Amino acid sequence: MLKLRIKAGNLKPGASISAKLGALGVPVSDVIKTLNADSATKYPKNLRVFVELIPTTDAKKFSYKYLPLTDSSTLKMLDGTEQSLINHATLTLKNRQTLKQRIKELKGIKKSLNVTK
Questions:
Q1: pLDDT above 70 as % of the chain
Q2: Cα-based torsion angle of the residue sequence 78, 11, 99, 105 in order, rounded to the nearest 10 degrees
Q3: Per DSSP, what are the bridge partners of residue 53?
Q4: What is the largest CA-CA distance in the chain?
Q5: What is the CATH number of domain 2-66?
Q6: Which H or E element spans position 100?
Q7: What is the pLDDT of residue 52?
Q8: What are the residue ranges spanned by the domains of the chain?
Q9: In whole angstroms, what is the distance from residue 64 CA to residue 31 CA?
Q10: Hey, which residues does 90 pair with through a beta bridge?
Q11: In this model, does residue 97 exceed pLDDT 90?
């Protein structure tokens, strides 16, 4: 199992990810292609998300799952636009909470963290 922090829809091959995946016997190009395609449909482009990669017994295959977004770390990474806040709020709605309530809650968290973006 390997935990990665990736930019949604924009994962690129690099020395660290190649070494980690190579040690597990997982093809780097397959992981990048799969995660870029899937994360781009689920998250705003370039939003940093956490993924748990699970190699299968067949070394060339893998499964993965996204780990929950945390408000404090994610709010610091958003680009500062109202749309990015709305996108994050939509992805992290809690039970019986409206989008308007969630945005208000996130703005409060953002203010308490002194995030100026």
A1: 92
A2: -40
A3: 2, 64
A4: 47
A5: 3.30.1550.10
A6: helix 99-112
A7: 93
A8: 2-66, 71-112
A9: 9
A10: none
A11: no
How sure is the predictor about 25, in pLDDT bands with cuts at 50, 70 and 90? confident
Please give the angle made by the CA atoms of 68, 95 and 105, to the nearest 5 degrees: 75
Alpha-carbon distance 112 to 94, whole Å?
A: 20
C-beta pairs of 69-76 under 8 Å, 24+ apart in sequence: 71/106, 71/109, 72/109, 72/113, 73/48, 74/47, 74/48, 75/106, 75/109, 75/110, 75/113, 75/115, 76/113, 76/115, 76/117
- Rg of the chain on CA atoms, in Å: 16
Give residue 116's Cα distance to chain centre. 21
